[in-house]
Amino acid sequence: MLCAMGLLLPCAVFAAETPAFTASSVLPANAAQPEPLRQFMLVSIYGHHLGPDSGCTTDRGAFPAPGELCAVSVTIGGRPAGLLYVQERQINLRVPAAAPAEGMADFVVTYNGLSSAPVPIAFAPLTASIKLTGPAYINMPIWVDVDLPEPQSHSLRYPITIWPADFGGHQFEVRRNGVDFPPIQPADSFPKSFSGPGGLGMIGGGSLLGLPHEPKNRSRLPLHLIYRFDRPGLYAVRYTGYEGHGAGSQVLARSSWLQFEVRDYPPSKRAAWLAEMRKTAPSDPVELLSDFLPSILVVPDSTVLPMVEEYLYNSNDLVRKYTMYALYAFDDDLVVREIPRLVEKRGPTDELAYLLSWGRNKFQPQVTTLVHSIVKYLDSATPLLSAGALQALYFIKGGYDWKANPDMPALMDNEIAARANRFIETRDVTILQPLALYLGIWKSDKSRDLLWRIVEQGTTVRGQALICLTWIGDPRDLPKLGSYNTGEIDYHLNLAYGAAAGPYLKGQK
């Protein structure tokens, strides 16, 4: 009606100015043919009336890319896309993270207030391919090789994290005889944190455990650590790579289902395999982490535990930490029975100290035996064991229940006091750090004096010793502590002394 009355431009002109494009003209950057799109992908839209004649480019280094550029905007499934370049016949953009991982999503281009018709575009994950690295047998390692396109392949290298069965964003589904097969349920939980820098559009964020060098087999994962194949049969496995680590993470890559047969395997042959593994165990920490240890963990039982325990004393700290977390795969009763015997025989390490701390409810009935075993290693000439003994006593004194053993805390204090001078004289940070922590929870004149000796020694543990002095909270220490008014020390001064610390925090001493 308005067009006919001449109040606006003719209807044909109005329609011609509306942005127009087709599904076949929405292409990945530099591609000649359409293909399913993905989050974070660089995409070009070709059409008519998409933007100004002269074209506009995003400011160099702009992040994130703007959702509107020279009166042009693009939505994908109702979410704004980041625009890199707009012009009458072409738009370059980055697909937003909120775009769907799979299915169809409407693209809508708006220029000068006029919007195109919605154009549905297909989205799909990257294609991954998987294969088994060898025949599959019950109670034996089953490794899956995962082939990912670039750059996502750089986010795969086992171990992904320090926890053996944690594959980060790399996940598997398994079916047995066509029915969903349940994964292994961990017997316990433990503190976790992800290491390494992450990256958008990378599986699991692209965060990987730092290793001294690359393993021989980078792209395979030990499926047997998350599924227990203890029965022969026909199985199928499918891989999915997620952008993040948790629920709600976007799918970035997926494989087809792979069918395979798991065959029977005589116990005698498995025993011979374990004997050969023990005899040929590598010394290289990367091969221990990426092959040997995950392989023997296929059946965590009393036969395998002695083989695993050996690596709690490895010279490489990554190997020790990985092995400590591997203990969570074993039966609780077995671990609670064997670890105190191991501590008695070979001594505590820092990793075993943490295990005793996190499992204090399980180890509580043996705490007296544990303390007597640990204090012997305060005299060890090996820093790994003497520092481990200090760390273990710090955790045990502060975390265990002493109602049934009221004399034990004083016994530990006396054992530490008898050796403290020698510890301080070592100037060894690995020993002084747990020593300072223990002295901080001892809270006596003796521990105060020892902590001030560590401070005056000027090692890198000085900051920790100052904080431990604030735990004791003796008013006599406040003026001297105030002279070390750094941000972290000020925070602990406030906690320990409250308003009384005010003048010292402000330098009014």
Question: Any key phrases for this structure?
Answer:
509 residues, alpha+beta, Immunoglobulin-like, 3 domains, seven-stranded mixed sheet, six-stranded antiparallel sheet, 19% strand, flat
How would you characterize this protein structure?
The protein is of the alpha+beta class and about 500 residues long. The termini are far apart. It has helices at about 10-15, 265-280, 285-295, 305-310, 315-325, 330-345, 350-360, 360-365, 365-375, 385-400, 410-425, 430-440, 445-455, 460-470, 480, 485-495, 500-505, and strands spanning about 20-30, 40-50, 55, 70, 70-75, 80, 80-85, 90-95, 105-110, 115, 120-125, 125, 130, 135, 145, 170-175, 180, 220, 235-240, 250-255, 260-265. Strand 9 and strand 10 form a beta hairpin. The longest helix is centred in the C-terminal third of the chain and has 19 residues, at about 410-425. It is built from 17 helices and 21 strands. The model is unreliable at about 1-15 (pLDDT under 50). It has 3 domains: about 15-125, Immunoglobulins (Immunoglobulin-like); about 125-265, Immunoglobulin-like; about 345-470. The strands form 4 sheets. Strands 12, 14, 16, 17, 19, 20 and 21 form a 7-stranded mixed beta sheet that branches. Helix 10 packs parallel to helix 12, helix 11 runs parallel beside helix 13 (about 445-455) and helix 13 packs antiparallel against helix 14 (about 460-470).
